[in-house]
Automatic annotation (TrEMBL):
<dbReference type="InterPro" id="IPR047664">
    <property type="entry name" value="SWEET"/>
</dbReference>
<keyword id="KW-0813">Transport</keyword>
<feature type="transmembrane region" description="Helical">
    <location>
        <begin position="31"/>
        <end position="53"/>
    </location>
</feature>
<keyword id="KW-0333">Golgi apparatus</keyword>
<feature type="transmembrane region" description="Helical">
    <location>
        <begin position="123"/>
        <end position="144"/>
    </location>
</feature>
<comment type="similarity">
    <text>Belongs to the SWEET sugar transporter family.</text>
</comment>
<keyword id="KW-0762">Sugar transport</keyword>
<keyword id="KW-1003">Cell membrane</keyword>
<dbReference type="Pfam" id="PF03083">
    <property type="entry name" value="MtN3_slv"/>
</dbReference>
<feature type="transmembrane region" description="Helical">
    <location>
        <begin position="7"/>
        <end position="25"/>
    </location>
</feature>
<dbReference type="GO" id="GO:0000139">
    <property type="term" value="C:Golgi membrane"/>
</dbReference>
<dbReference type="GO" id="GO:0005886">
    <property type="term" value="C:plasma membrane"/>
</dbReference>
<protein>
    <recommendedName>
        <fullName>Sugar transporter SWEET1</fullName>
    </recommendedName>
</protein>
<dbReference type="GO" id="GO:0051119">
    <property type="term" value="F:sugar transmembrane transporter activity"/>
</dbReference>
<keyword id="KW-0472">Membrane</keyword>
<feature type="transmembrane region" description="Helical">
    <location>
        <begin position="60"/>
        <end position="77"/>
    </location>
</feature>
<feature type="transmembrane region" description="Helical">
    <location>
        <begin position="150"/>
        <end position="171"/>
    </location>
</feature>
Length: 192
């Protein structure tokens, strides 16, 4: 089991944006800083809004505490390496790579279900397609600035997204709603 605690998507995105923001600051890459400052802010707001509407607040606070503790621990540890800035950047880059690959691999948890039922209806096509194009853009950016910490996870993100998109060809959805079963359940649950 490669994830001991299964965090929700918003925690994973908050992790990813926060660590990439840190990496952007350390490497002085303003594009990375701006994108991830906005992303961190939006996912923090989303996390707080989700907290307001969640039923099991205690479990959510516990998960958020774990997320915060890990974020702080990584920042404190990398700060202790200030004598060696390259080591700080290297360690932060490794953490960014791991979190980004976990983010792209998260939809693969439904892979077994899709293959078993031979139907890709449960996969969110818009999210997967967007992940592919965003990964491709960051991969190109990583190549342009010669940064392997940007190239590697986004190359893997492209591959994982293509694998998931291939499931739509191999096992087409039975209905023409390409938003996935999760979105249908969400539409039924939200009273707006």
């Amino acid at each position: 089991m490669w994830l001991l605690i299964q965090f929700s998507l918003n925690f994973t995105c908050l992790y990813s944006c926060s660590f990439w923001l840190r990496y952007g600051v350390l490497t002085n890459e303003q594009s990375i800083v701006m994108v991830n400052m906005i992303g961190s802010t939006l996912f923090l707001i989303y996390t707080l809004v989700y907290y307001v509407f969640t039923v099991n607040k205690r479990a959510y606070v516990k998960q958020f505490g774990i997320v915060l503790a890990i974020l702080i621990a990584v920042i404190v540890y990398t700060n202790s390496l200030q004598d060696d800035p390259q080591k700080m950047i290297h360690l932060t880059g490794i953490v960014c790579c791991i979190v980004t690959v976990c983010f792209f691999a998260a939809p693969l948890t439904s892979l077994v279900h899709v293959i078993r039922v031979k139907n890709s209806e449960s996969l969110p096509l818009p999210l997967i397609a967007t992940s592919f194009f965003v990964s491709l853009q960051w991969l190109i950016y990583g190549i342009l600035i010669s940064d392997s910490f940007i190239q590697i996870p986004n190359f893997l993100g492209c591959l994982l997204s293509l694998l998931q998109l291939g499931l739509f060809v191999l096992y087409p959805p039975r209905s023409y709603s390409y938003t996935g079963q999760g979105y249908k359940l969400l539409e039924q649950a939200v009273p707006f």
